[in-house]
Amino acid sequence: MEVVVKDFDLVRLSSIDYFPLLSLPEDLLINIVESLPLADRTQVRLSCSLLERIVAKADLTLPHTYEIIIKDGLPCTSIFNDHRTMHGNYQVAAYLASRKAIAGRIFLSSVMITNLDHIDQMDHNVIDKFIDGVVFNNLLIAMGASTFDQR
Amino acid sequence: PNVKLVTSDNEEFVVDFRIAKMSVTVSRLMEAMNMSETDDASLLSNSIPLPNVTKAVMARVIEWCEKHKNDEPKEEKENDKRGRTTHVVSDWDKEFLKNDEFGRLCQLMGAANYLEIKGLFNDISQTIANMIHGKKSDEIAEMFNIHCDLTEAEKKEIRKKTAWCED
Q: Strand A106-114 vs strand A65-71: parallel, antiparallel, or unpaired?
């Protein structure tokens, strides 16, 4: 019986001695990637197509906590507790768009609207725009340290 | 009591029962073969075949297990707020893993995964992650001998997708 070795398998097999990292099974590579901060993951993604695919897959399984901070009635948004200026709005939009592009949907563990000094000043349209299409477990609206509302 | 482990290249290692039990895989095999700590005859008459581990790698695994055999079970932290799992590699482990060239480190990681020795597996995984940390993509490619097959357009697209996490 003749066994035909496909190009992909040939490359994969021939890489074992020379490219030990790429010869690791995918689940082990994902484990390594999961220990990396997000900025490092981007650099790993840029190093080759195999790692790009693996990191993208690992990122999809990440639980994220998404926090929206309201300042002067507008969301001054942060991701992963990075307190940012309004520039963060653009970054969150880019983040959501990229995850939508990869996953088709976004799953976030919670959306938190916090630091509400004046609830009446909240711009609901902007908030709706941010969380539109986002799948999440909890929406927490907090005033200071205490939870104001939950649904 | 001692347990006999046989590697893929037919080398027999005789290890302490406590060390053998550090591997979930070996524990399960011993259970399946009715080998128990209190039954010397069962330990003497059986050996555990480990077809996915070579002699050289097994020697390193046992060295790591010897050092950690009295450790309390460690609770791993789950994801931190930046979405990554964290594991602290002790100074001894750093020194231990420093001696392995990268290809061997990957073999050791494969063995730790097969043998289900969580502590060793996490140590190696974190060590490789630490090697990557702070490096640019071309430095990562060079370090791991990776040929970058992405086009400039594909790289641009990745940068665009990940711009939000690059401060």
A: parallel
Q: How far is B99 from chain A (nearest CA, A)?
A: 16
Q: Are residues A74 and A54 in the same domain?
A: no
Closest chain A residue to B152 measured between Cα atoms? A46
Q: pTM for the whole thing?
A: 0.69
Q: A2 in a domain, yes or no?
A: no
From the list A25, A34, A43, the residue facing B85 with the nearest CB is: A34
Q: Which helix (H) or strand (E) holds B137?
A: helix B137-143
* Mean pLDDT over the full length of chain B: 86
Whether the CB-CB separation of A43 and B140 falls below 8 Å is answered with yes
Range of the domain at A112: 65-150
CATH of domain B2-70+85-161: 3.30.710.10
CA distance A151 to A30: 34
Q: Which residue of A has its CA nearest to B132?
A: A40
Once rounded to an integer, what is the mean pLDDT over residues B54-69? Answer: 94
**For testing the chain A interface, which of B76, B127, B140, B160 should be mutated: the one with the most A CBs within 10 Å?**
B140
Q: Which residues of chain A have pLDDT under 70?
A: 1-19, 59-151
Tokens at B142, concatenated: 């060079």
The predicted-structure confidence for B91-141, as pLDDT tens digits, reads as follows 999 999 987 888 889 999 999 999 999 999 999 999 999 999 999 999 999
* Chain B residues whose beta carbon lies within 8 Å of the beta carbon of residue A94: 160, 163-164
